[in-house]
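call fold(seq) -> C-alpha cells
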Amino acid sequence: MKHFFMITNLQKDPSLEITHYLEQYCKEHEADCIVQVTGDTGIEEPYTRGSDIPPGIDCIIVLGGDGTLLQAARDTQGLRIPLIGVNLGTLGYLAEIEQPNLERAMQALLMDEYEIESRMMLEGRVIRAGETLETGQALNDIIVARCGSLRIMHFNIYVNGQFLKEYQADGIIVATPTGSTGYNMSAGGPIVEPKAKLLLLTPICPHTFNNRSIILAPEDVITLEIGAGRAGQIQEIEVNYDGSHRVTLLTGDRIEIQQSTKQTDIIKLNKVSFLEVLHKKMSES
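ret:
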C-alpha cells in the first residue's frame, strides 16, 4: 500500500499530534496521505463523502474509536476501500491499532502484510402508509427504541412476512456479528465471531420473563411494526443506525431490516484469534 486517505476525529486527536505523526511517516516512506479532519462541528453529518476520496486510494485510516470507524464505514459504503482504525477511544473492538503500535502497523501496511475481512452490513427501510420514507445502512446495528418517554413500547415482529412475536420492551436491537460486541452485548445478547453471516435480534429491557435473543439466517427479512401504546395512544419511537443517524417512527410505521448488498472491508494486522482479542478486551473492562 502506498496511497492512504486518513479521517481524523478532532475530538479524539484535538492537537492533531497522531494525525501529523502518521502524515509525516507516510512522507518519509514515499507514500501518499490525504488528511480529512472532522468531528468538531457538533452537527450530525458525514465525516467524508465518496466524492472526497480520489481514485487509487488503497486504504482508509480512521483515527478515533469504534464510533468514528462505524461512521466512516457508512460514509464510504460501496467504495470497497478497506478501512483500519486507530483506537484513540476507550474500549475498541473495531479500531485495531493502539497508539504504542503505530509504527509497527504502518510498516505492515506499507509491506502489504495484512489480511482483509469482509463484514456484512444491514439495510433498514422505514415504511409509512406503504411508502418508503428512509433507507439507511449500518455495520454494527439498527436500534429501535423509545425517545424520551419512560412508557413501555409495543412492537410486533415479523420474519419473512410471518408474525413471530409481540414485544413489550424499551427497544429492539437488530445486529450483525460485527455489532454483537456493541449494544447487543450490553443488552444480554450473544457474542458472535465477526466473520459469521447471521442476524441477531435482541430486546432491550423486555417486560417479560422471556428475554432471549433470536438468531436468524442472513437472508431473512425482519420487520418491526410499531404498535399502539396504552389506551391506544400514538407511540413515538426512534430508529438509529450504528448509534448515529436517527429517524422518528410513529404507531403503524414499519422498518424492514435485512442484509445489505454492501459490505465493509476491514484490514486485520494481528494474527491473534477473535477469542484472544475478546478475552483481552473483557479483562480491560
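The longest strand covers residues 254-268.
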